[in-house]
Amino acid sequence: MAIKDYMQTLGRNAKQAGRELGRTESGKKNRALLEIADAIENSRELLATENQKDLAAGAANGLDAAALERLALTPKTINTMIEGLKQVAALPDPVGEITDLSYRPSGIQVGQMRVPLGVIGIIYESRPNVTIDAAALCLKSGNACILRGGSEAIHSNQAIAACIAQGLQAADLPVTAVQIVATADRAAVGELITMNQYVDIIVPRGGKGLIERITKEATIPMIKHLDGICHVYIDGHADIDKAVRIADNAKTHRYGVCNAMETLLVAESIAHRVLPLLAKIYLDKGVELRGCLKTCSLIPECKRATEEDWHTEYLAPILSIRIVDGIGQAIEHINRYSSQHTEAIVTEDYTLARRFLREVDSSSVMVNASTRFADGFEYGLGAEIGISTDKLHARGPVGLKGLTSLKFIVLGDGHIRQY
């Protein structure tokens, strides 16, 4: 079948399945999620075998260590997938929730009801666990979805797709509620992002090149983020032990993730105390340091940072460091160079912490915590479909409510408008 015809078929199936999901009660959706979790549990060996095919092909094709790490379905990753499904099943169903219901002078009642978006197209790279996260959130929020994973994870994704289909069938829901594109042809993406008659929202998850392409070509609204240039600012009133733990974890816990710290800002009054401690940790772990002139004077191994470094999401063991004169300069730097993903301050000064929360314009802003917590699972959303740095209609980790919309409802009893 031609790519266009194939994608149109997926779209028609999704539209029909979406209508059924939109009226499906919570219990049935929860049952499907738990059935999928059981299917994943019972298919561990198959998932590992199929994932090894992708890892071997990725290594042969020159994927770097960070990309291979994102591609791997480890036992821990599979455990997290199962736990995510169970968490989403346990969450309150947002669909049908009515809020702000109030009487108007005319006697009618006006409120808002939360409803599914409809059909969601999700395009992502590498991480096969995204397939489960996306399917779970779309299913619970009453949305059908079309998932297009990267070619590098095609065997893993098809194995996961079989588990999802098994769970949907067991719960007596249409298997077309979650469809995973079975071709690696890039033309499928071009079709998916222009099928306005079937698809209501596009969620791209991947590298900057993918996001830029979809932003340019899509004719459908999107929930997206371009990069994760995340900052940690160590204030002059910081607890040194906390600062070291947080700045270490934010950078070195995992390098190839969007919520890893890429730039460390340190108040000048505390830099001489905290930077030598952090430098030893980073250098022992093989992190390349690039800093401002003041930073280089404190850390001899540090290379001089360029203007481009402040704009760069490394996704690698590289860190840029700048010494600032205080919170004002830190906020100015963040609001200039940040991608509006996640920023953190380490301080014991409550007033400064509140100022940082108020003035830093990012989707997640933290006090005395690692940027690595910017994650739907950690926020109690069960899973996330992505982290949005847009301001409409969802921002930050996008969970169930981010995959719904609001419509006005009016309750009357024979009321007519007279004025």
- Strand arrangement within the widest β-sheet reads 10-9-11-8-7-12-13
What distance separates the N and C termini?
59 Å
Number of helices: 15
Q: Given the helix and strand composition, which structural class is it?
A: alpha/beta
Q: What about the largest sheet? A: 7 strands, parallel
Q: What fraction of residues sit in β-strands? A: 15-25%
Determine the fraction of residues in helical runs and give it as a percent range: 40-55%
Mean pLDDT rating: 94
Q: What global shape is seen?
A: globular
Rg (C-alpha, Å): 23 Å
Number of strand segments? 16
Low-confidence stretches: none
Tell me what the structure shows.
- This protein has 419 residues and is of the alpha/beta class.
- It has a 7-stranded parallel sheet with strand order 10-9-11-8-7-12-13, sandwiched between helices.
- The chain is globular and about 70 Å long.
- Helix 6 (129-140) packs parallel to helix 7.
- The model has no long low-confidence stretch (mean pLDDT 94).
- The termini are far apart.
- It has helices spanning 3-22, 26-42, 44-60, 65-71, 75-90, 129-140, 154-170, 187-192, 208-217, 240-252, 268-284, 293-298, 307-310, 327-337, 350-359; strands spanning 98-103, 109-116, 119-124, 144-148, 178-180, 201-205, 230-234, 261-267, 288-291, 303-304, 318-324, 342-346, 364-367, 387-388, 396-397, 404-411.
- 44% of the residues lie in helices and 19% in strands.
Question: What structural keywords apply?
Answer:
419 residues, alpha/beta, seven-stranded parallel sheet, four-stranded parallel sheet, 15 helices, 44% helix
